[in-house]
Design a protein that fits this description.
The chain has 415 residues and is of the alpha+beta class. The chain folds into two domains: 16-167 and 227-315, Bira Bifunctional Protein, Domain 2 (BirA Bifunctional Protein, domain 2, 2-Layer Sandwich), CATH 3.30.930.10; 328-414, Rossmann fold (3-Layer(aba) Sandwich), CATH 3.40.50.800. The chain has helices at 16-32, 46-52, 58-63, 82-91, 136-152, 168-182, 191-199, 210-216, 228-243, 288-291, 306-315, 335-350, 364-374, 384-389, 410-414, and strands at 36-37, 43-45, 65-68, 74-77, 101-110, 122-131, 159-164, 248-250, 264-270, 277-284, 299-305, 328-332, 355-357, 378-382, 391-396, 402-406. Helix 1 packs antiparallel against helix 5 (136-152) and helix 5 runs parallel beside helix 9 (228-243).
Length: 415
């Protein structure tokens, strides 16, 4: 037997309805905020992620699925959604559209990492991207998309944590202060942190190693080194969120794990799957479009793991839709009536009715057992008498009530 690869998961038919429900709520929520769907390829040129996500990130260093194709090109399965959207924004001249351009995606992403609760090597993300606005109102709007989605799902538990990591000018001053603080302890930190010390010291704050976290716990905070513009932006964002009635916590430890972030960063953090975990994370990436070859364009957005979100909803016993219940089963009493039953089912489907008949050669008793297990709302038995008279009895399975009607009127009766 060939088993499923580690870090992947099948969604079997009896569980797919949960995904249908969640994706439907996601699409409706995004539409309410004026976001339209964008679909980008499952794989991109590796250079896109090296330039966009950053060579010092764990994603690029450790987690990407990269291969050389038959044209000797380096190709990578996308490990996140934002870089591909930035590439599409440039390549499809979306900057020529009225600004802001508001997009969302539902996409698989691929990361070679240790599988954990709600995070697989292939998992799925909902993300929003807002291009063209540098306003803190844009920051607040993308946060409200996530908050509104959580509210619709009945999920009040995730807490919004916000921070600012400043612009490149702020970062220079902060990186100098951070390196000065870390210099005496860097030899005690993990190999990744030692490598990041010179290349990108801010990434050290995102390290999950207990020893490294203990050292960085008292490190200088990015908020202490913001320039006047970045500080004003962050303070205005807090005012907007407060006016909108959105509860939040300023959390200096939120820095996000991708190099393209600038200024505002945020996470919605939940403890519904054990240890605290991020269910949604995002922020500003005002330099990303120019870094991958476009004109300078302010941008802000987030990504949200759907497997993790479904797990939280299940753990809290929140509504995740209902299994699709088939409508009617037409049971021929023998092989002689099977063709007629097949034709009736075909006509019902043309009229939008979910209908099925026997294709296994089962006895009538076995068909009734099958229809019960499948959860059909109605069952009708078709024998020679029904075919000759043109009339049939429809039995409602919930209470056993039978209704007689013309075979040609079944769809109307069911409605």
């Amino acid at each position: 037997m060939i088993n499923i690869p580690k870090g992947t998961k099948d969604v079997v038919p009896d569980a797919a309805y949960k995904w249908h429900y969640l994706e439907d709520v996601v699409r409706k929520t995004a539409a309410e905020f004026g976001f339209k769907e964008i679909r980008t390829p499952t794989f991109e040129h590796t250079e896109l992620f090296l330039r966009g996500v950053g060579e010092t990130t764990d994603i690029v260093n450790k987690e990407m699925y990269t291969f050389t194709d038959k044209g000797d090109r380096s190709i990578t399965l996308k490990p996140e959604g934002t870089a591909g959207v930035a590439r599409a924004y440039i390549e499809n001249c979306l900057g020529d559209m009225p600004q802001p351009v508001k997009m969302y995606y539902l996409t698989p992403v691929f990361r070679y990492e240790r599988p954990q609760a709600g995070r697989l090597r292939e998992h799925h993300q909902f993300g929003v991207e807002l291009y063209g606005s540098a306003s803190p109102y844009a920051d607040a709007e993308v946060m409200l998309v996530a908050k509104t989605l959580f509210d619709k799902l009945g999920l009040t538990e995730p807490v919004l944590n916000i921070n600012s990591i400043g612009c490149p000018e702020c970062r220079k001053k902060y990186n100098a202060a951070l390196k000065e603080y870390l210099a005496g302890n860097i030899d005690k930190m993990c190999a990744s942190c030692r490598e990041r010390f010179d290349k990108n010291p801010l990434r050290i704050l995102d390290c999950k190693e207990p020893g490294c976290k203990a050292i960085t716990a008292s490190a200088p905070k990015t908020l202490e080194y913001l320039c006047d513009d970045c500080r004003a932006h962050f303070e205005k964002l807090q005012s907007i969120l407060s006016s909108a009635g959105v509860e939040f916590r300023v959390n200096p430890s939120v820095v996000r794990g991708l190099d393209y972030y600038t200024g505002t960063v945020f996470e919605f953090i939940s403890s519904a799957i054990g240890a605290q975990g991020t269910v949604c994370g995002g922020g500003r990436y005002n330099n990303l479009v120019s870094e991958v070859g476009g004109k300078p364009t302010p941008a802000v957005g987030f990504g949200m793991g759907l497997e993790r979100l479904i797990m939280i909803l299940e753990n809290l016993n929140l509504y995740l839709g209902e299994p699709e219940t088939p409508t009617i089963y037409i049971a021929p009493t023998s092989e002689a009536e099977a063709e007629a039953a097949f034709s009736v089912v075909g006509e019902l489907r043309k009229k939008g009715v979910s209908a099925e008949c026997d294709i296994m050669g089962r006895s009538l008793k076995a068909q009734m057992k099958y229809a019960g297990k499948r959860g059909y709302a109605f069952v009708a038995v078709m024998g020679a008498d029904e075919i000759n008279s043109g009339k049939i009895k429809i039995k409602r399975m919930s209470d056993g009530v039978e209704t007689e009607c013309a075979i040609s009127d079944i769809a109307e009766v069911l409605r």
